[in-house]
Amino acid sequence: MARKTAFLRTCIALALTAAAATGCMEWEYGKTEDFSTSGPGLFIVNEGNFQYGNASLSYYDPTSRTVENEVFFRSNGFKLGDVAQSMTLFGGKGWIVVNNSHVIFSIDLTTFRETGRIVNLPSPRYIHFISPTKAYVTQLWDNRILIVNPSTYTVTGSILCPDMSVESGSTEQMAQLGKYVYVCCWSYQNRILKIDTESDSVVDEMTVGIQPRAIAIDRNGKLWAMTDGGYAGSPYGHEPPALFRIDPESMTTELAFTFSPDDSPVEMTLNGDGSRLYWINNDIWSMEIDAVQLPSSPIVHSQGTKYFGLTVNPDNGDIYVADAIDYQQQGIVYRFTPDGTLLDQFYTGINPGAFCWK
Fold it and tell me: No. of H helices and E strands in the chain?
C-alpha cells in the first residue's frame, strides 16, 4: 500500500470535518526528560493513525546505533498530534508538520524542546523555507499554498493555484532552484507549478502524469517528478505511474519512464551528491540520473515487508527503509549499505513515513 493512500481514500469525507474538530486542539502537559544530542543523526517522523493522535518523533544515532523513541513527547510533556507528515531543518531548528492537528512545531535540534508553533493551518503537508522570514506550506484539499513567517510563527499570505478548486486539488512536495520553487499538484491533478519567490506568484506550469507526489533536483539542475497514476475507479482518471526528468527553465519533459499499471512507486529521493535516484516500488530501486531506462532489478527486496518511507544518508550513501508492518504496531527501520547489505534495524513509532537528517 502506497504511503497515505489508505488514509486519503477512506477518509476524504472526514478530512474537512476533522479540521473543525481538531483545529483548536489543546495539548496536555506532563513530565519531561532532558536530552542533549551532538553530531549527525536521523529524525524519523512517525505518522501514527488518522484521528488517534498518536504521531511521534524518533531519533537515531548512526555512530552508536541507538534509537530514542517518542523524543518529542518525552522532551515536551505532550504528544506530537494527529498524522505527522514531514520534517524540515532550517535556522538551526527542526520544523515538524502535523497534518490533521493543523500545526507546525519548531524544535531545538539538541534538546528536542519546542521553540514555537504555527497553528490553525487548514491541512499542512510540507514546509519549504525561502528566507528566515518567509516559507511556503503546501496543503491537502486547498487551492492555496500558504505563506508563513517562521520568525513570528504567523501566516502572512497565500498563493492561489490556478485552475484548482478546494475539492479537486492539493499541493505536495516542493523543490527550489534559484529563485523558483517547483510544486507538485497532487490529488486529482497532473501539473507542476513554477513559483517566483520574489513575487510569490505562479509564473509557469506544465502537465505531467496523473498525481505527481514527489519532486527533487539532481546535481545537473534537472527536475525529477514521480506520479502515482491515481487509482482505479477515480472520476479523475487512472493511468500507469511514471517518472519524469524535466528541464526546469523551459518546463518541458526531457525523459519519461513509465511503470507497469500494477506498480506503485513512491518516496522518490536522491543521494547526497544528487547523482542517483531511489524509490520504493514494493522493493527498493535505484538508478543513475543519466540512465535511459528503468532498472531491471531492485537493490533491496521487500521480503514481505510494507516499505513506507525511504532516505539515503547524504554522507555515506547508506539506505534507510521504514517498514510499517501492519500499520497498527511499532514500525521498523532497516539500514542497508549502498549495495543493499543489511547493517542494522531498529523499532520506531507507528507508521514511520518521513526522515530528516541532522
Answer: 2, 27
Which residue, chain included where needed, has cell 530501486? 285
Beta pairing, strands 276-281 & 266-270 = antiparallel
Question: In this structure, are residues 274 and 219 in contact, taking their beta carbons and an 8 Å threshold?
Answer: yes
**What's the rounded Cα separation, in Å, for the pair 131 and 337?**
35
Buried b (16+ CB within 10 A) or exposed e, 297-336: ebbbeeeebbbbbbbbbeeebbbbbbbbbeeeebbbbbbb
* Nearest partner of 223 among 259, 191, 186, 182, judged by Cα: 182
With contact defined as beta carbons under 8 Å apart, do 6 and 47 qualify? no
Is there a contact between 43 and 356 (Cβ–Cβ < 8 Å)? yes
The Cα angle at residue 351 between residues 30 and 49, in degrees rounded to 5: 65
Contact 194, 178 (CB under 8 A): no
Tell me which residue has cell 554522507.
Answer: 315
Tens of pLDDT, residue by residue over 26-52, are 545 678 999 999 889 999 999 999 999
Per residue in 303-312, pLDDT tens?
Answer: 889 999 999 9
Q: Which residue has the cell 520553487?
A: 181
Q: Which residue has the cell 495539548?
A: 27
Ranges of the chain whose pLDDT falls below 50: 1-25, 27
Q: SS3 sequence, 233-265? A: CCCCCECCCEEEEEECCCCEEEEEEECCCCCCC
**7 Cβ neighbours under 8 A, 6+ residues apart:** 50, 83
Cα–Cα–Cα angle for 127, 319, 92, rounded to 5 degrees: 35
Per-residue pLDDT, 90: 98
- Single pTM value for the model: 0.91
Q: What's the CA gap between 56 and 60, in Å, rounded?
A: 13
Give the amino acid at 247: D
Give the closest residue to 139 by CA, choosing from 90, 104, 107, 114. 104
pLDDT for the residue numbered 167 = 85
